[in-house]
Design goal:
- There is one protein chain.
- The longest helix is centred in the C-terminal third of the chain and has 32 residues.
- By secondary structure, this protein is an alpha/beta fold.
- It is built from eleven helices and 13 strands.
- It has a seven-stranded mixed β-sheet with strand order 1-9-8-5-4-2-3, sandwiched between helices. The chain has a three-stranded antiparallel β-sheet with strand order 7-6-11, with no helix packed on it.
- The structure holds pyridoxal-5'-phosphate (PLP).
- The site of pyridoxal-5'-phosphate has 15 residues, from α3 and α4.
Amino acid sequence: MIPFIDLKAQHARLEQDIRQAMDRVLLHGQFIMGPEVVALERQLADFAGVQHVVTCSSGTDALLLALMAWEVGPGDAVFTTPYTFIATAEVISLSGGTPVFVDVTPSDCTLDPARLEAAVEQVRSKGELRPRCVIPVDIYGLPADYEAINKVAAREGLLVLEDAAQSFGARYQGRRAGSLAHAAATSFFPAKPLGCYGDGGAVLTDDEQLAETMRSLRVHGKGGHKYDNVRIGINGRLDTLQAAILLQKLRIFPEELQRREAVARAYVQGLQGIEDLTLPPFPHDRRSAWAQFTIFSKERDRLQQELRQAGIPTAIYYPRPLHLQTAFRDLGYTQGDMPVAEACSRTTLSLPMHPYLAPDEVARICEAVASIVG
Ligand SMILES: *Cc1c(COP(=O)(O)O)cnc(C)c1O
């Protein structure tokens, strides 16, 4: 069986360094907000090309911290894509705002800037909600079209929060994911391109005031000291141990990104020309972090089943778009409201992807796919 994601290969490579880094934390004993957290925030900011990084307990809390800092609440419309993990829209409801779903483009499954403009106009003409923010999602690791989205947002007075949970390390017009909007949230969940050994996340921004507010929010809304509480916050810190692990993984991350891209190119070579398949795009102005290598097939279910029989695991991200989730039934969406996202959900299939996938494994997977749907 080929692993879908091979965390063991990476761990074998880094084991000595990671154990030593963890030992240093065990010895100094500053398990909460220790020196590794400070060092990681500086290095992540330099890597992504932003002024401020606020690490936190998960990608979900990273999204939530930004919305809380912007004081998103009842009566606020927050626009986002239905073609994402639940967390992206969950935090909108948690903050008290209302998610407004905007369908995606067929070319890359990211939020469609033209439909965003239309959705904002519709919310304005209804007059019940105030348009506040938009959360584009860099699905599978590929940045959304920020030039177009930021233009609409500027015209409409919206704040833009980049959901870079899958795209840390990606580029858009030369800039790194995480630096493409007013603020960005990323995740260090183990399966993400840069993962730790538990839950973790970060918010990235150039806005100093915003960063300060989020630093307060992640420690129960603290003011001048721990027992001075100036706002309602959360317990949302990143553990020092996780920061120590991430510092080691960050050293090899640029090389791992290159390996992921090489795997993606090998897949495209091996799969091109199969009529039933749509392969992921390589837009000239973007470089994906290749969190997933995702293909689309009308015969998706049969393909997945027969690949499994051939010892090749796959995953479906995501089988049900968020506007059709039970948790959001009160929003009143129905089947057919987001036709592009719905079609993507019916045909999407992610193949094994990690930096240590060998060329002969990629070849074996491509041959298996070709023999099933070729
Ligand atoms: C993983 C993910 C999140 C949430 O990150 P966690 O660290 O698991 O909380 C949010 N958005 C997207 C698009 C994700 O893939």
